[in-house]
Amino acid sequence: MPHVAFNTRIAERFAEWLSATSGQLHTVMVGPDPPDFLIAPHTWLEVSDIYLNNTQAEFLNSSKKHHFKFEGSPDQLALRLLEKLDEKLAKTSYQKVYNERGAGILLLTCQDFFFDEVILERVREAVACFQPTNDQSLFCTAYFEYRLPADKHVYEVIYPVRA
To answer: Residue 2 pLDDT more than 50?
Structure first.
């Protein structure tokens, strides 16, 4: 249950940002799963956390893991982001909510505590070349949420890929 509360805070923060940038109030309600959340007015939100690797995810989300050793390439997070994006774009389980509320929003959140400007540049390079393998066209937009040291949360559109 703690992970649901964590993702609810993420969704609420995103709705606040979306409200501020669009000039229209957006509110979040827990969804039927799928999707994770319904957003008023009339859209929906799927949230997925991106970690450097599975070991880091276990370390951050399990009380049983007491240490974590950094191993991997600066490209690793970018590759995991693209894998998750491709996976979510291909899922057919969002069809029901799409039929009811139209295209949704995908929010991929960076949970890597090593994230920095170098990794961000690798993410941007990878996203620029991204081609989905089986896009069901159920999402209108996908955002990558990240935070650099001393920055607020930043939301970048990663889908559709902009030229």
So the answer is: no
